[in-house]
Amino acid sequence: MSAVNGARGPGERVLIVALSGRALAQSARRAGLVPSVLDRFADLDTREAAEVALRIAPGRAGPLAAGPLLRAARGFAPPPIPLLVGGGLEGRLGVLAALARGRELLGNPPEIVARAADPFVLAALARALDVPFPETRPDLPADRRDWLVKRKGAGGGWHVRPAESVAHLHPLDYAQRRVPGRPISILLLGDGRRVLALLASAQWNTGTPPHFKGVLAPAPLPRRVEEKLACAAVAVGTALGLRGLASADFLLDEEAGFHLLEINPRPGGSLEAAETALGANLVAFHLAACRGRLPEAIAYPTAFAGTAIVRADRDLVVPEGFFWPEWTGDRTPSGERVREGRPLATVRAAGGDPGDVRRLLEEREHRLLVSMVDAPGARRARHVPAGEQRA
Question: N or C end of the chain, less CB within 10 A?
């Protein structure tokens, strides 16, 4: 692993740890903070936003190897520099506790993360609050049709499998009955006592198993439907005592029925689109909420904004000096080899019509992939060693 020094400033320093810390780092920089980032990629725009950006290799138990992560945190952003955690540590509570030792934790402590990530705790809480939740069990049913197998603390959808394809459950696996609907997420902000709903976002998936592809904010929903989901999300978030940004993921069916699927007790994939739609700095909101201050009012979104992950359509090497359009994020450094299907970048778009935003995201994804192949010096990667491929 190697550190990359970027921009510096006079503001409060903060350590960001996430699978991908770019959006958090850029928002933190706009909020006047000086972020150091430990993540899986150390992308070009992460380096530009961060005081230090360091790539952490994956480990056996998760996307960020515990030993290198903890050593880097102590070496490049030692306590008492505050800690802001994004996605990737929900299943690594011991690592989260070790990272937070001696620091202000700007987010939820391990005990709350553990409750939010436990499907059986969440199912019991949902029942008590009269919030629909899929039938969930610790073993495989006799008839596995219409059942899924999921893993505690995992994210992104890669861990979800049809139960019919699973012979035995891993100790962290559980079975959940399949329910119909499209993914809708409610972005939450809490101070440990009260929780506010900021907006709803629509998500979409791709691949087999389906994994997270993109997000549109706000979700184009009837107001009464959004309010119903927000009410359920706020009830569960309040009962958990959530602090800072979080989200509640639902499946919404065609008749406006819904099921809560999970609570993500940290800033998530909707951050960038939600900031654009709301015209607000969400990391500033997050820090204030973690320190006991919720905003008095939340502006209603005035535009639609979306982001989508672009995955390589072939094994490739990012050309030297490649020109990244301004509507791209998570920009892979030149010379890096990216295996087919791995993340290459993120595209973003905004506008007054949700359909136009989705179409623009698709158009920009296509343009980026074509330009990557047609760029001077472009070449295909003959072989990408396992230790060098992007997760």
Answer: N
